[in-house]
Amino acid sequence: MRVAVTGAGGRLGRALLAALADAPFTGPLGPIAWDLPDHDLDDPASSERLVRRDRPDAVVHTAAWTDVDGCAGDPELALRRNGAAVGDLALACVRAGADLVCISTNEVFDGRRTDGHGYGPGDEPRPINPYGASKRAGEVAAHEAFLRNGGVVAAVAGTTPPGGPQLAIVRTAWLYGPPGNDFPAKILAAADRAVAAGEPLRVVGDEIGSPTYAGDLADAIVELLGAGSFAGVHHVVNAGAASRADWARAVVAAAGLPVEVTNVPLSTWARPSAVPAWAVLATTPLPSGEPMRPWEAAFADYVPYLLRGRAGGSRR
Hints:
The protein is an alpha/beta fold. It has helices at 11-21, 46-54, 68-73, 75-96, 130-148, 183-197, 214-227, 244-255, 295-310; strands spanning 3-6, 32-34, 58-61, 99-105, 167-172, 175-176, 201-204, 208-209, 212-213, 232-235, 242-243, 261-264, 278-279. It folds into two domains: 3-175 and 211-235, Rossmann fold (3-Layer(aba) Sandwich), CATH 3.40.50.720; 178-209 and 240-279 and 294-310, UDP-galactose 4-epimerase, domain 1. The strands form four sheets. It has a six-stranded parallel β-sheet, sandwiched between helices.
């Protein structure tokens, strides 16, 4: 299977290339990396050009404009990059008979749920910020492109693989991992500053989500591809939930820093973009039946890399 990965230089893109390189179904040539300048979210023709050139059997679309506050400042550009560009890629894939896996986000939901349950694929998306709205637009554009051109948008019982190119939407939340500059790295830097100033580290305590390690998400996507039948909407996050403050305490403890983490309300931080307070997704079963491991275990695997970066090593 020839698998192309958009956004190959990004956090998830890198993890996917590594996971696909070890997958038996990608063959000796391994995955195909698509990134700038060849694949450009601002160039409507780039997707079709690459699909024709490389003729992949499947594409995993990780490329996106993920600057949430930037999207709030330019909603039209967000819709172009995260919405229309996904439709362009979906149309190119389905016409070429290629499967497509689109990566989406918890931010398609409003985060106002109060029953303690994570959002499932059947819950109605209600984005509250331009980033979430643009990602939802991308989901819809991909779905419509496949539906109108003979693609498969939902699992077909007893058919492996289904009789047509498949579309999968994979939603995730609070992604972190190499090359750094993620929430743990930012907390570590803030904690160092707090220690130097002799002050507590103030972190939001009422924003709760599903911290998800990029390597684990990449492995899950590879498992879906390898199963043969994967059309539909999947929620893929590490198990459990944590507040931003809970996660910060785990970072501080891992680094052995003598600083107190103090909870503050989400309203403390004025931002251009509204933030879903409940960012928890309910995981959907993977083909193997094995659940995603707890976020704490996944974060523990990341800690050595995180601390090497703090010591002045490269985060690349």
